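the three lines:
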Amino acid sequence: MSDYSITIGTFIAIQAIVACGLNVIVGYAGQISLGHAAFFGIGAYASALLTTAGGLSFWTALPIVLSITGFIGLVLGLPSLRLKEDFLAITTIGINFIVVSVFLYVPFFGGALGIGGIPRVMLFGERLRGTPFFLLCLGFLAAVLLISWLFTRSWSGLACFALREDEAAASSMGVSPVRFKLVAFVLGTAMAGLGGALYAHYMRFISATDFGFPMSIMFLSMVVVGGMGTLWGPVLGALILGVLPEVFRPLTDYRMFLYAALLLLMIRFQPGGLLGETSVARQIFTRLKGGHGR
Amino acid sequence: MQLFLEQLLNGLAIGAIYAMITLGLALVYGILRILHVAHAAVYTVGAYVGLAIFSSTHSLTLAVLGSMAFCAALGVLIERFVYYPLLKYPPYVPLIGSIACLLAIEELCRLVGGPEILPFPANLPFPSFTVGGILISSTLSAVYGISAGVLLLLWFITTKTELGLAMRATSQDRAIASSMGINSHWVISVTFMIGSAVAAIAGILVGIYYNQVYPTMGAVPAYKTLALIVVGGLGSVPGAVLAAVLLGVGETLLIGYAGIPLPRDALAFIAMIAVLLWRPQGLLGGRR
Amino acid sequence: MSEILLSLREVSMHFGGLKALDRVSFDLVEGEILGLIGPNGAGKTTCFNTVSGVYRPTLGEIRFGGIRTDGLPPHRMAALGIGRTFQIVRPFPDLSVIENVIVAMGLPCYRGLFSSCSSWKGRATRERAMELLAKVGLDSLASQKAGMLPLGNLRRLELARALALKPRLLLLDESFSGLRHEEVSRLEELVRQTRKEGISILLIEHNMRVAMGLSDRLVVLDHGQKLTEGSPEEVRKNPEVIRAYLGKGEGGGSNAA
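prediction for all of em together
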């Protein structure tokens, strides 16, 4: 594989990890989160600071990064998740906005210049770059998918599904709405933090503008396009939306427009996502398999 | 004292413009419960179309009227193509559609109009005058005059006309309004037309006020207006207008008078968080 | 067997100026089927909602199994032993029928950190869920998406879910409305069967024949206040009750099957 493909692949793997986290919040628990990139950023900044100013290695810093991101998710989620849908949507936008503002204006985080000189990840004495780093990211992605899969099989996961379907009914069956929404939220934000840490050590330079609202929409689009609430949906979404701009690259100037137009058409005609149950892709697939209709 | 009053007047003008942009968003939310983020794109298009018409005809009147008509049509197009078919899905679906719309339209503006900041060298045919030693420029009086006129007209339509009654009925309960003979889809489309036309006026005013028209001019209003409808009370149009005016004044006084080094755009979200913590129904929100 | 399981004392529910419940007091004895009846708008579902934790009563006390429970949220009430059905059915539409029931079976696991991490896909869980489905006659539809079921089946699913909680008290909120004749008889039989297994039942019902036939005792509400209580025969002959129903222009047996 060419260097260029590895680069794209690494980005896709990292974004897929973050999208999986968002899928837990939005797809499994049915909560709206339009500020997910904020936690991507928190993970990135935490890992960057711990490994530069803090002198820790990526691996020592990682559990701390996950804890910090999850903890902030808990603190922000507690008041937010009690809000109804539209309030929650706007609040998560606000959270994204404020987190980015903090990164931009509080000098500790490097201000507009961001943080640079982030060291590479060391494994068995090797500085990881290129293909080995890509494989590391794939490894983490596999771990994240495994955790997601186990989550869907756990009582916690089932509780979240129930909340998503009907909160009042779920609550009358012993499912505490706040508790399980928080569980999903913390799990999702921790995954985003993991993605952020990998991103920081890949880019080796980060700044607040990488983590703004447009990025949150990117992640949400990945989850929606791939199929919300499915295991592989976010990965497929990350793949498609990661490859698409590259496909359009020759049309550089029209890239963003085509991307936005495609997203619009996708959501308009296939709101369930490509892996969703009524999707065209699934219908074609079943027909190819031998025509057993639904 | 002079500085305070000058900043107050500036703030009121900015607030009036915010109010005109937020109006469309609040109207749409009231009637469809959808966060019409793409509204900011309509506002941007309004500025561009106004500039284009003005550049070729040198008539501000034609520019305003033409832009209003174009944006009204655009608003209805968005409603019919994106929102109405997606109403039966969970709310994040039309929301993503709206955001995709915003991005696509902004990009179109950039592709058609170019990425540079374009000047809008129009003269607003409004008088300038001095009151108690403070100059009210023609631009300022234009903003006051036009926004007051628009808000008054809207107040009249919603409270005194049958259309307004139909709009209020449809926003309370679409199904029942339908069964009473109101063509609710038509009412919804009219709501979009009105909100979009007003946004066009706001876009032109802003373009002239700052002498700048550029593709991403809708980005910041997109987020601020969202915060504003929460602060005003989700579902309350007068609340949104009030919140908008207060924000305009607040931002300007905070930065221009008190000199507090907060990022100006954060004030809207801070106000929103404060509202959510202490008065979740917003300034004028009530029964919901 | 004659212990008081549920007790309401002076329970009031005010929504602004509206008194949906006004100083309602009654007891439910363990093992009985208590019917809650009254004309439309009398406050019956509001009463249910205060008992199951959806509303916190403005005034008054509710005791369940001796513990004060007014103001506790619904998930705590479920853990204490109250199961309920909903007047407008609330299935989990995208989950299968058997998964709907399994959600309720998770009650013991939801409180603990580790227990909520364990898997629900085990065979024992599935078998017990199938037993419950068989009891209500839905076992053949176990893997159907719940959202596709017709009303009659959805009402039975609600009952299966509530039973899966292993409740001490079952609240049935108009579970018979909208059902066909045979479905009503089948459901009546199920309710009687449930009581035989030791579960007490509080039911709201507009269908007078069902309410009179199933209940050991009745509590009559009107305009948020308790009008009277007593055996079906006593209540049927009570002139105030008759007036309450007829006075609203609604025949007492208007919803009789």
